[in-house]
């Protein structure tokens, strides 16, 4: 028999899954709820909707139309939130520009996306001035003065707030196909130019609904919902700030936007505005700890989702000692980003076990299909031990790298999205990322997980932060090199670094080839534009050092 379909009455509303509808319930249930920007301004959800309309009207006034790419260069702000809605709601495509990339790469992403209108914070005026001769598609630039006096740059078509004040709040937002592209941004990558990913309205709405369910789906993890106060500590240019602004707005909760990250201000906003939920990378969490120590800020009760890099057991334990509720999650730029979120077993009371469970890569989210596979795409056992590449399917995964068919085919080889992460999956669906394919250390005929080894090194006396990379070795092919940041005033020795490593070797938790022969000390580890440890930079630096050592007589 053929498939059966409903024949709706002509008067039935065909509800498209578009971003506009994420506002519907909040405007009814939370119209007077606050949205706060730093210590400078606040307004209600009712005013947010009016400002979304004003932004769409002013963009139309400078030539915006459906399908056009409109780019934003700003810090985490209420203006960015307005753009998250206004731009896709009018049928245009929002490009969230990674302002931490090198200037030539920023220019590349704007050109590749064919951005036609640019909203730019005054902090980035010099970058725009430098790039302008190489941005032929830009038709208008809206300056964001952020409350500061001063003359507008010559390239500006006007100032954001002044133009918004003159624009109509009653923009006629209309329904359209939910499969229209809503957002685009660019992965940082490890080689070559950044790669563009894109997401449709339908994907973002499904991601929002599922993420909301995941945050409230367990009684044993710090969830997010009605009554919480939200403050992002992940850049809004990076993977939709992990999708949380859409969830927060859909729920109608109080939102606090910190602008440019200043750790002491973040702690003050947290106290004064009653922030209960944030998300960030481990580096930002460490900055918050330091600011709290300097100011005496109380961090207890603050729920924090950590991603981007692995949440170490030591960092998790330190947060819990301060009364915070921490957990890790896993995702990628290509995955919108939600894939999994950690949760301890129901009824678990042992603190060490809870920390171990909170620092996994998490249990797969609803609607996510996950496998680990070998190089021939054969499915491997989900026994928590067998390792393979993690591959995924979900309704919100990017369908391609825009304009790069070869890379897109590799990303989706065999009909599954390839993460290039080596992982295990256990019988309960808990993912544990063991390493990146490119970061695995191949030595003595065995593979060493750099993530596992650097967790051990981070436990050593005198170590504040650690990373482990592979360096060339004429005998073994590769050997591990620990790069450490010492605790202020502490002396780090090779014996101290090897103490936890040797214990793990004795317990059979790691191969004997993991024992360190060398280490290097840095004042700080190099970072990528999104705050991850830049192992590529360290490999290049210390491979050269290794070559020089081998060349010595």
TrEMBL record:
Entry keyword set? Ligase
Record-annotated AMP-dependent synthetase/ligase domain positions:
30-401
**Known NCBIfam families for this protein?**
PRK06187.1
Identify this protein by name.
Long-chain-fatty-acid--CoA ligase
A Pfam family that the UniProt record links to this protein: AMP-binding_C
Q: Where is the AMP-binding enzyme C-terminal domain?
A: 453-532
MF terms in GO: ligase activity, forming carbon-sulfur bonds
| Source organism of the structure | Sphingobium yanoikuyae (Sphingomonas yanoikuyae)
